[in-house]
Amino acid sequence: MTKTLLLDLTRDQLRELVQSWGEPAYRGNQIYDWLHKNLVTDPAQMTNLPKKLRERLAAETFINPLELIVQVDDARGETRKALFRLPDGSTIEVVLMLYDKRRTVCISTQVGCGIGCPFCATGMGGLTRNLSPGEIIAQVHWFERWLRQDSPDSEGLVVQRPSRVTNIVVMGMGEPLANYDAAMQALRAIADPKTFALSARNITLSTVGLVPRIDQLAEESLPIRLAVSLHAPTDRLRNKLVPINKRYNLSKLMDALVRYQEKTRRRVTFEYAMMRGINDAVEQAHLLADLLTPLRKAHVNLIPLNPTPGSPYQPSSTEAVRRFQQALEDAGVTTTVRLRRGVEISAGCGQLRQATQQPEVLKFIRQ
Ligand code: SF4
User: What amino acid positions are annotated as catalytic residues?
Assistant: First the structure.
């Protein structure tokens, strides 16, 4: 018998499950709270449930789908990256980032990614499958459990425990809007004020720009933040760097973002991975500023590329980033330069996974 992942079930679905077992519906609420508030990993810990129900849960369901393969910290203790194995043997990456006074978890929504950006380690491997809602939620719970532990020892990381996850970025492996229903179910559970209770405003979802899904997102009542991985100011270049642009070009994308802003009144952030000699010329900054003009509120994050081994795409120089940023600021666009933290731990999306597919690298990392 295939066991059910309990984190895949909404509160209503849990109530239905226990009712189908002949239990009162409120038992489903109790289980939901144990899972999403107390973050238990074993039905035996659900002490207000009858023993018979706990035994049935243990026999027919499971809670934690993640098996840690390896975790790596950067030298400053600000970033911890974990590689997990899922029950079907697939592997995913999750990152905890401890800077800017935040404790941010970067989560994955797919095993691999079908978008195929040529500078990205995940894109090189293609898409294996979508993650389920519970597999997404479990990534946040994993680090939340570790942060909640009352321990004087933070294992070399710059965080005092007990503490909590303060922010989530949906920027790990995969295109979240290509796995829309599961991603939104997971984020609703995380932002549920009765249980995990992370403010939706502290959740940022990053997309390459699936236009119909941006329109759908604008209708959601969940006020998460939207980031768009742009990386190029012209269709010609973006067709190469972000191939989905051939389907949803910049004109369609910007129209969708204008509609999104009209509906939500929220700022849109643009991620721009800066690649030497590819997209970092001052003229390209001017084109980018022109492109963003129709938006009422926009912000650009400039991120020197995390180079993937074997890739011809390399990060822009500090000077090129500074010039590009200045040109945007002069045109009235607010910007941030995001430091390339975690380069030494392969913190770029999909890089640890790619590295650990070579057994000798895995052995090295574990030492
Ligand atoms: S950059 Fe993002 S969208 Fe592009 S291939 Fe990588 S994971 Fe997919």
Answer: 93, 349
